[in-house]
UniProtKB/TrEMBL annotation:
Source organism of the structure: Devosia marina
SUPFAM superfamilies linked to this entry: SpoIIaa-like
Protein's name according to its UniProt entry: STAS domain-containing protein
Gene3D superfamilies for the chain: STAS domain
Superkingdom of origin organism: Bacteria
Cited CDD domains: STAS_anti-anti-sigma_factors (cd07043)
Domain STAS: start-end pairs: 19-118
Amino acid sequence: MRNARTGSVMVMTGGSPHVAEISGDADIRHSQDITDMLRSALAAHDVVLVSLDEATCVDVSTLQVLLAAHKQAKSLGKSLAMAGPAKGRLRKLLTEKGFLDVEGEPIFAEARFWVTPLQQPRDLSA
């Protein structure tokens, strides 16, 4: 979906897992659009992968939105994960803000979200 007001592009592809690609500016000006897109994706899909590979700007508000969406997914028994390990602007920001060390390794347990491959939700009915 293209957001004409902000210029950011959010492409949501079908299939399993569902991929939400965020490109353009992923900053405070677009945080509500990104939040809405992730909520919609989680409402419709059990597994959502987020790609920021094409983002030209990423700020701390994007980190907050993604972590909140990850927490929401877990509470719903769903999965939201990064499409791949953090790199480029995202990795630099995560290092500056104390999530990753200079080698790109998580500094604390919750920071594994940025570098750990997707873990499917557990089937608790078995």
